[in-house]
Each structure stands twice: as structure tokens, then as C-alpha cells.
Design goal:
- The complex is a heterodimer of chains A (75) and B (131).
- Chain A is 69% helix and 0% strand.
- Chain A is mainly α and 75 residues long.
- Chain A starts with a helix and ends in a 9-residue tail after the last helix.
- Chain B has 131 residues and is an all-alpha fold.
- The radius of gyration of chain B is 20 Å and the shape is flat.
- Classes of the chains: A mainly alpha (75), B mainly alpha (131).
- Chains A and B meet through helix 1, helix 2 and helix 3 of A and helix 1, helix 2 and helix 3 of B.
Chain lengths: 75, 131
């Protein structure tokens, strides 16, 4: 997997493409799919769901804005 | 990357499972109870509202941080020993993000509550809850 980082990008692209497609279809009312807002609202009813979402937010911020940006952590 | 993927899929899967579980009189479970999305209990006074908000934000930040650290540690020792200061960066970088985001969130909540109170003062409506 390390030798083929392109596969990772493709997986993420497919994942986010599916999410956007899902949201588009649900907002268009096709098949009465729940929107992502509905899903997140249900997740946030529970403390563990809020923890998981916050952990996801933290991971995203750390991955994109902190890791590798050493000047932010330089003493 | 794997950790993020697992978190996304587990969280969304749980939400979908709860949402699509059939309920009586609601095929898709969309009839959500009125109130705040986070399930914050309704508070009558502004002080109680602020305390409840602070408790919920603190619990969410601490719980989310610990959950992510557990995933990161499990990934590091169980899946791949990532080179460099991976664990140190995870602990300090995410703590720094919390240190930046939580005060900003508190300030934004305070400004929103203040604006809402000012609006209710000018229109003569009864003031709403604090946060």
C-alpha cells in the first residue's frame, strides 16, 4: 500500500464522490434517502456519536493543517 | 488514513442504522424530537444554559480527544509504526487544535447569545435561552 499511494487517493476520491452523490440524491428527494444532516443529527444525539464526530474533526484538522507544518509546533 | 476511513464509516454507519431503523408511524425515522441537535436538555435560565453548554462542550472535546488518541495509539502499535514524531504530533497537534477551537467556539456562542438578547430587548420579545 505504501508503494502505491495513488490507490489511497482513489479510495478517498470514491468515498467523497459517493458522499456527494448521496447528498445530491437525498436533497433532490430521490428515493427518500436521508440527508447527511439527518444522519449527523441522529449521530449527535448520543455522547459517543459526538465524540466520534469530534475525533473525526480533530483528525482532519491535524492531518491537513498540523502534520508536516513544523513551523506551527516549533518552539 | 485508515484511522480516518474507519472513523468516517463507523460514524456514518451508526447514524444510518439509527436513522433507518423502522419506527412506528415513521418510515425513515425523520421525525426528530424538537430541540437542539446535540440533545442538550432545555434549560430555563441563561446560567443553566451556559453551564449545560460548557459541560457538553467539555465532555465532547475530552471524549473526542481520548477517542482519537486511542485510535492513533492502536494504529501506531497495531498496524504501522509510522516514522517520525507521529505520536507526539498527534498528542500535541490535536491538543493545539482544541486549544484554538474551543475558545473561539465559546466566544462565538457568547456573541450569538448577546446579539439574540439585544434583538429580544429591542423587539420586546421575551429573552431566549443564553447559549
Amino acid at each position: 500500500m505504501v508503494q502505491h499511494p495513488l490507490v489511497g487517493y482513489l479510495v478517498w476520491a470514491a468515498l467523497f464522490g459517493a458522499l456527494f452523490a448521496w447528498e445530491g440524491l437525498s436533497l433532490a428527494g430521490a428515493g427518500s434517502l436521508p440527508t447527511l444532516s439527518d444522519v449527523f443529527r441522529v449521530i449527535m444525539r448520543y455522547p459517543v456519536g459526538r465524540w466520534a464526530l469530534f475525533a473525526l474533526w480533530l483528525w482532519t484538522g491535524w492531518h491537513f493543517f498540523v502534520r508536516g507544518w513544523h513551523f506551527l509546533l516549533r518552539a | 488514513m485508515l484511522g480516518g476511513y474507519l472513523l468516517i464509516m463507523a460514524t456514518l454507519g451508526f447514524g444510518l442504522y439509527r436513522l433507518c431503523r423502522p419506527k412506528t408511524g415513521d418510515r425513515h425515522g425523520r421525525s426528530l424530537p424538537a430541540g437542539r441537535p446535540g440533545g442538550l436538555p432545555a434549560a430555563t435560565g441563561s446560567r443553566r444554559g451556559w453551564l449545560a453548554l460548557a459541560r457538553q462542550v467539555t465532555g465532547t472535546a475530552v471524549g473526542g480527544y481520548l477517542m482519537l488518541m486511542a485510535v492513533v495509539i492502536a494504529y501506531y502499535y497495531g498496524v504501522a509504526r509510522v516514522a517520525g514524531d507521529f505520536l507526539t504530533s498527534a498528542f500535541t497537534g490535536t491538543a493545539m487544535l482544541i486549544g484554538i477551537a474551543v475558545p473561539l467556539f465559546g466566544a462565538a456562542s457568547w456573541l450569538t447569545g448577546r446579539r439574540r438578547r439585544r434583538g429580544s430587548d429591542t423587539t420586546g420579545e421575551p429573552p431566549g435561552r443564553g447559549p
